[in-house]
Specification:
Elements: H1 3-35, E1 47-48, H2 51-62, E2 70-78, H3 83-96, E3 102-106, E4 112-116, E5 124-128, H4 134-149, E6 161-169, E7 172-180, H5 186-205, H6 218-228, H7 232-245, E8 268-274, H8 277-289, H9 294-310, E9 314-321, E10 338-345, H10 352-368, H11 374-381, E11 395-400, E12 413-418, E13 428-435, E14 438-446, H12 452-471, H13 485-492, H14 508-518, E15 523-527, E16 530-533, H15 534-549, E17 558-562, H16 567-578, E18 582-585, H17 592-602, E19 606-609, E20 623-625, H18 630-634, E21 650-656, E22 664-669, H19 670-683, E23 690-692, H20 701-710, E24 715-718, H21 727-736, E25 741-744, H22 746-753, E26 766-769, H23 776-785, E27 790-795, E28 805-809, E29 822-823, E30 827-832, E31 845-851, E32 857-858, H24 862-868, E33 869-871, E34 881-891, E35 897-902, E36 906-909, E37 912-915, H25 916-924, E38 929-937, E39 945-952, H26 959-966, E40 978-984
Parallel strand pairs: 5-6, 11-13, 15-24, 17-18, 17-19, 19-20, 23-24, 23-25, 25-26, 26-27, 39-40
Antiparallel strand pairs: 1-4, 2-7, 2-12, 3-4, 6-7, 8-14, 9-10, 13-14, 15-16, 21-22, 22-32, 27-28, 28-29, 30-31, 31-34, 33-34, 34-35, 36-37, 38-39
Helix pairs in contact: 1-10, 3-5, 7-11, 8-12, 9-10, 9-12, 15-16, 19-20, 22-23
């Protein structure tokens, strides 16, 4: 054990001793209070409600038809049941316990009060199912019990208690008991069953039932509890709980299956399971050797599971205590159970044994302060109330020690069992209990949040985590494995089985050359009234390549290309590649500062440009004008160029937004782009005849259109730069040039859909959206307007070569989010936690990408490359790397990946990836700005906006001047839509 671990264990031991003395003092004080007894109230018309009763009454007023606080149990009888004796016994219990004949009345001031009725009878409903088949009897009995258990009570009428006797055969019965939680807890139901046996036997013996007299009734307890809240003991307990829970995370961010409704209903189900035999065998021994209770161990393991599911280090779990420490309460039916909160801190990633010691102390302290009503704690802490969440905690843990589950009746065999009332009080409740030496459990879950298959996984993970803890208690929490071998294999390998053939020895321009040989006369590029066939485009690119080689361009040599949309743009890209160089696209409309940053980082051998834009380049940069200087290239040969370039050499460098205020260049090899292109040809089986090339060459989606089209003899249709957002013009291009495929951001595609005229898009076969979240509303719109056109959602960062996953969208989907699909050929996608462990289905993890698309990294930036490109712990090849995207995602049950959002400050607006830090850095460079913050405003999820707020250095910052200055430093898409000054500093 390390020195750090030794010191931590010593601190825990010392802390335990100190707190043990404190607990003993508090227990002694509590004992003194206990001996004082609970006074019996003078008879009155109405009594106050206990705190717990008051909360349930309030909830019942909000949802009077909701049965989620019904408590139900049933007893199976095998033997002749005397129904008169049973009826007498039930009503004697009602006579004995006033709470069972109590109604809740409301005073004129609106305050609820208990009203005890002196004469209230319970009639047992008799149901005979003997005439039905055995199978039908079983089904009907279950259905009837569920129906009765789920019928709401009218608390204003007494009693909130009903009984039914179902006869399922000769001398075969089921006695059903249903009570509202406001008058009973589970202890009470078992007490009721025990007393039923005593009264039933007394009926036949003509003897007085052997039951102790009740010194008080529940109303006495409720009145005493109200008075007790003003006492010194309760004051100390309040101080403890306020100190314990202040600052706790208000919400446990559970991985739910369904969007949380604004007002959470309490519809629920139970899933029953049994812990593995090896866990049962070792659990008690483990607890004994670590001097902890079963509750402590089981609750600690549940907290670990929630930590791994949510990634939160502050976990609060509720748990019930019987709250019957006083002798007067032991035999009294009523609602006594109190709720405590176990708060667990995972920030230092402790070993489990250390966490267990902490949990032991926490539960001992909580037990010493268990008398204070939970409702009083909530009132004192005043958490933000939200109808979608339970206050302080949303998950509960229950442990029940072994009981025999039986009671004796003369000549009758019986068995008690609990029923599912069809409701749930919390998001999830885990109950573990002993039965015949085995540990069994159930998970009760809210069906508005979870599917059953998710809860099944919870049960499996809990059992697996228990095994891991038993085997390796000194392992850190993050290293404990809770996945089954088969599940882990599926996540890491089955869903990443994407191996496919591709031309490993080819470079990307050679794929184009193969199409030239096949279809030399096919149309390759169309721009306005100009066009080139494959043979013409290839010839011009070869001429340019020879010109570039004459200027020293070859493998690993960067060549800038700063041109407007034109035929020259395509010629220039292919010419650079054919010469063996790597092209670096530069936007002529980019601010001068950004243009200079790209040139300084890349240090290109020269820049291809046009006469009308070359003035943007610094005087010392070598250049070649593709229009005014073309005569020099026209003298060169037109046959294919033979160069020394290999698949491992650079193909291009694309610059993306940088978090430090400086753009970063992603270095992409021929191998990367060839695989990405072949994956595209393999996935999209429908050939591309005409592709509307909307993406600027400075964005990686341009690679998809350029090479995905020219590698299969399709034609590229280029809009003018100033017509990219002219929806009507784009639609006319689709019609005029019989475009079959397009790729764009969802927001532009939505605009296109809104302007389509009849027959304007008859040629269109597939639309691909990428770069932004695809919302269901867009899918619905597409299905209504272009149902015959296939729709796809692509995902992928520049660092993984354009794309890494794709999802075919069904036009009439009812999904609340559109998945980003599955990995493409020769690509692996892993969803991992902070410690690079795979997360299970439904749980959010950071998205890591591996495979053939992973690029070299960032040009001339080894530190950032090392940070974002990490060793692949699951790869089959030595030296394999993963790209850490910073995106959060989760798996669906079928293996589809659902994008959740950014895990850092990087965002996407209209398909453009933006580092908020870069926007802030640009603002802080301005003389008028002292402080700045950039963020995304999502008032409209389909149209998020980039906004910025600033503190000025002058009395009245000139917002428009600041905006104008920003435009000299940032591209248009990085200019905040809303720029405001918060305060002014001199």
């Amino acid at each position: 054990m390390s020195t750090t671990e030794n010191s931590l264990s010593e601190r825990i031991a010392r802390l335990s001793d100190e707190k043990r003395a404190l607990l003993e003092a508090r227990l002694a004080e509590a004992k003194k209070e206990k001996n004082a007894g609970i006074p019996k109230c003078e008879p009155m018309d109405a009594y106050p409600l206990s705190f717990a009763q008051e909360r349930l009454w309030f909830l019942s007023q909000l949802e009077p038809d909701d049965p989620f606080y019904n408590e139900a149990g049933a007893v199976e009888f095998d033997g002749a049941v005397n129904q008169d004796a049973l009826n007498w016994s039930i009503n004697e219990i009602v006579r004995r316990h006033e709470v069972l004949r109590t109604a809740i009345a409301v005073t004129p001031e609106g305050q609820p009060r208990q009203v005890v009725l002196q004469d209230a009878k319970v009639t047992i409903g008799a149901i005979d199912l003997q005439s039905r088949s055995a199978r039908q009897r079983e089904r009907d009995a279950q259905r009837l019990m569920e129906q009765e258990a789920r019928k709401p009570f009218d608390l204003a009428a007494a009693p909130p208690f009903k009984v039914a006797l179902i006869q399922t055969g000769v001398d075969k019965y089921i006695l059903l008991l249903v009570l509202h939680h406001i008058v009973a807890d589970q202890w009470s139901i078992r007490l009721l069953i025990q007393e039923l046996g005593v009264f039933y036997r007394a009926y036949f013996s003509d003897q007085k039932p052997l039951l102790p007299e009740l010194p008080i009734q529940y109303a006495d307890y409720a009145n005493w509890q109200r008075e007790k809240l003003q006492s010194t003991v309760y004051g100390k307990q309040m101080d403890f709980w306020v100190g314990q829970l202040t600052g706790a995370a208000p919400v446990l961010e559970l991985p739910v299956d369904l969007p949380r409704p604004a007002v959470l209903k309490h519809r629920g189900k139970k899933y029953h399971f049994e812990l593995a035999q090896e866990v049962t065998a070792s659990l008690k021994q483990f607890c004994q050797s670590n001097n902890v209770t079963l509750f402590t161990t089981l609750a600690a393991v549940f907290a670990v599971l929630l930590n791994r599911y949510t990634g939160q280090n502050d976990i609060c779990i509720g748990y019930p205590v019987a709250n019957r420490s006083r002798a007067e309460l032991q035999n009294l039916i009523g609602f006594f159970v109190n709720t405590l909160v176990l708060r667990t801190d995972f920030t230092d990633n402790p070993h489990f044994r250390t966490l267990l010691a902490r949990t032991k102390i926490a539960t001992q302290e909580a037990q010493a302060h268990q008398d204070l009503p939970f409702e009083a704690v909530v009132d004192a802490l005043k958490p933000v109330r939200d109808t979608a969440y339970n206050p302080l905690f949303q998950v509960m843990f229950v442990f029940q020690s072994e009981t025999d589950g039986k009671f004796e009746l003369p000549g009758i065999k019986s068995r008690f069992f609990e029923l599912d009332s069809g409701g749930t009080k919390f998001d999830v409740t885990l109950c573990v209990y002993e039965e015949k030496g085995r540990f069994k459990a159930w998970l009760e879950y809210n069906t508005d949040l979870f599917f059953e298959q998710t809860i099944v996984r919870w049960s499996e993970h809990y059992g697996q985590l228990l095994k891991a803890v038993m085997a390796q208690p000194d392992t850190s929490i993050a290293a404990l494995n809770y996945l089954f071998y088969q599940e882990r294999w599926q996540l890491l390998y089955d869903w990443n089985a994407t191996e496919a053939n591709y031309p490993q020895g080819r470079c990307i321009h050679e794929l184009f050359e193969a199409q030239v040989a096949r279809n030399p006369g096919a149309l390759a590029v169309v721009f306005e009234d100009q066009q080139l066939t494959y043979a013409q485009l290839n010839a011009k690119a070869n001429q340019l390549a020879r010109t570039l080689r004459g200027r020293g361009v070859g493998p690993e040599v960067s060549v800038g290309i700063c041109v407007e949309r034109s035929l020259e743009m395509v010629i220039g890209i292919l010419g650079i590649l054919k010469a063996g160089g790597a092209y670096v696209p530069i936007d002529p409309k980019a601010p001068q500062a950004r243009l200079m940053c790209v040139l300084e980082n890349t240090e290109p051998a020269l820049v291809l440009t046009q006469e009308r834009v070359q003035a943007l380049l610094p005087p010392n940069v070598a250049r070649f004008c593709l229009d005014s200087e073309w005569d020099q290239a026209a003298a060169e040969k037109t046959d294919n160029v033979v160069s020394a370039v290999t698949p491992e050499n650079l193909a291009y460098v694309l610059y993306t937004s940088g978090s430090t205020g400086t753009p970063k260049g992603v270095a992409v090899s021929h191998r990367n782009v060839v695989n990405a292109t072949y994956a595209r040809l393999d996935y999209y089986q429908q050939p591309v005849d005409g592709f509307l090339w909307l993406s600027a060459m400075t964005f990686d989606s341009s690679i998809a259109g350029l090479f995905g089209t020219l590698s299969q003899s399709g034609r590229l249709v280029l809009p003018q730069d100033d017509a990219i957002l002219d929806v009507k013009h784009l639609l006319q291009l689709i019609a005029d040039h019989a475009v079959t495929h397009l790729l764009t951001v969802p927001s532009l595609y939505k605009a296109l859909l809104g302007q389509i005229a009849p027959h304007q898009t008859d040629s269109l076969k597939a639309a691909i959206v990428a770069g932004e979240a695809c919302h269901p509303g867009l899918v619905e719109m597409h299905g209504q307007i272009l149902p015959q056109v296939a729709l796809f959602n692509e995902y992928g960062p520049t660092e993984a070569t354009v794309w890494c996953s794709v999802h075919p969208i069904q036009p009439r989907t009812t999904q609340r989010t559109i998945p980003i699909g599955r990995p493409i050929a020769n690509t692996q996608i892993y969803l991992l936690d902070d410690d690079l462990n795979p997360v299970p289905v439904g749980v959010a993890g950071e998205l890591y990408i591996g495979g053939m698309g992973i690029t070299r990294g960032y040009l001339n930036n080894p530190e950032l490359t090392a940070d974002r490109f990490v060793p692949d712990p699951y790869g089959q090849q030595t030296g394999a790397r993963l790209y850490r995207t910073g995106d959060l995602a989760r798996y669906r049950v079928n293996g589809d990946i659902e994008y959740i959002g950014r895990g850092d400050h990087q965002v996407k607006i209209r398909g453009f990836r933006i580092e908020l830090g870069e926007v802030e850095a640009a603002l802080l460079q301005l003389e008028q700005v002292k402080e700045a913050v950039a963020l995304v405003r999502e008032d409209n999820l389909a149209n998020p906006q980039l906004v910025a707020y600033l503190v000025g250095n002058i009395q009245a910052p000139d917002i428009e001047a600041i905006r104008a200055q920003l435009k000299t430093r940032l591209p248009d898409y990085m200019i905040p839509a809303d720029l405001s000054a918060w305060t002014v500093c001199r």
